[in-house]
Amino acid sequence: MAAYFDDETFKGIDFTKKVIVKGEYDNCTFLNCNFSGIYASNIGFIECEFINCNFSNADISNTAFKTVTFIECKMLGLKFNKCDPFLLALNFKDCQLNVSSFYQLNVPNISFVNCNLQEVDFTEANISKGVFDNCDLRNAVFNRTKLEKANFSSAYNFNINPTNNFIKKALFSKENVIGLLESFDVRLE
């Protein structure tokens, strides 16, 4: 029988040295924990919060993230497209997610606040009504991505081609609209 943890706080644990117990974590907080490079598959996180944790290059295949918030986390190279898509709901604040993948994920209403999203793959993902508040999207890939009603008003360094993405009613600012024109090789003065 899988382990069950409810309303617990895990503080300063280095899971590269101590194996994470497979099971379900409900309403738990992980503070200053290291998940870097570990095999964290087939674990369920429901309404959990991760603060100042390192998830870089962790294997999150079939891991469930149901209404999970990441704050000040380092999450380089994560393949969110391999995690359990059922009831997947993610929010990120002050996180580094460079070279991560959301390929074909259905994550409407996802929120990124003050995040570094360089070289992140959003190909064919549904990010409608998503928020990219003050996020660096340099070399992020948007291809056949659903971005309807998404908020990019304070995002920067993005290149989104309006002809091969779905951007109806997405919000952009006058300052960053150039990110919609770069693929057309248009210059503004």
Descriptive overview:
This protein is mainly β and 189 residues long. The protein has a domain of 101 residues: 3 Solenoid (Pectate Lyase C-like), CATH 2.160.20. Helix content is 2%, strand content 20%. The chain has a seven-stranded parallel beta sheet with strand order 2-4-6-8-9-10-11, with no helix packed on it. Strands 1-3-5-7 form a four-stranded parallel beta sheet, with no helix packed on it. The model has no long low-confidence stretch (mean pLDDT 94).
Labels describing this entry:
4-stranded parallel sheet; 7-stranded parallel sheet; 20% strand; Pectate Lyase C-like; 189 residues; mainly beta; elongated
In a few lines, what is going on in this structure?
This is Pentapeptide repeat-containing protein. With 189 residues, this protein is an all-beta fold.
